[in-house]
Amino acid sequence: MRLGTVVGQVVSTAKDSGLAGFTLLLIEDLTDSDMPSPVYVAIDLVGAGDGEVVLVSMGSAARVNQAAGRAPVDCAVVAIADTVIRRGDITYSK
Predict the structure, then answer these.
(1) For residue 11, what are the domain limits?
(2) What's the pLDDT tens digit per position in 39-69?
């Protein structure tokens, strides 16, 4: 899994039927660097919003959720983080 921030949304009216009903989110990985990381698209399984820190499942694990099982995806937002603790320090808190 990856830890990232929701930085936007993709709106698409013409798409594979397996994606119907899913919100497509733009995610940027959280990194130690001040440089922005590449942005990628993930389906939203949990109702995440702009600016929230989320956990993203990648690859075939993104389709484990029954609702996403037929969707042609390789990234899915599977959780919204409340707190991130790194080396004993709280680095993010909702």
Answers:
(1) 2-93
(2) 999 999 999 999 999 999 987 666 665 565 5
